[in-house]
Amino acid sequence: MKAADCKTMAEIRAEIDRLDAALVALFAERAGYIDRAAQIKGPLAMPARIEARVEEVVMNVGDHARAAGLDADLYQAIWRQVIDWSIAREEKVLGI
Questions:
Q1: Which of 3, 26, 52, 86 lies in the 20 to 30 Å Cα band around 80?
Q2: Residues annotated within a binding site for substrate
Q3: Of the given ranges (1-5, 18-22, 51-55, 69-73), which has the lowest mean pLDDT?
Q4: What distance in Å separates the CA atoms of residue 37 and residue 32, rounded to the nearest whole number?
């Protein structure tokens, strides 16, 4: 259902709840890749934080946000928090 198709607040709330569940599932999937990255980085003695990659991800998110008509600065700020959490998760796996 699209937002414009919603006729009641109950429908809007149900769709928001559905999207929130989907977002959480995507974050869980992303966390799996973060864990795998840490497993690969460990034997290679790679750091959890690779600044060039951090900036690449942030710029990509900004581009995606702009393409979707969203505030790139807001989503880049959100993603910096996601990245910080991801790096902390990697460091835990790496035993740092």
A1: 3
A2: 13, 30, 41, 90
A3: 1-5
A4: 9
Percent of the chain with pLDDT over 70: 100
CATH code for the domain of 21: 1.20.59.10
In contact, 40 and 50? CB cutoff 8 Å: no
* Cα–Cα distance measured from residue 56 to residue 19, given in angstroms and rounded to the nearest whole number: 26
Which residues contribute to the annotated binding site? 13, 30, 41, 90
Alpha carbon 70 to its chain centroid, in Å, reads 16
Residue 8: phi and psi, rounded to 5, are -135, 160
Residue 83 structural domain: 3-94
CA distances (Å), origin 22, targets 16, 17, 29, 66? 10, 9, 11, 21
Q: Does the global pTM surpass 0.85?
A: yes
Mean pLDDT score, 12-41: 96
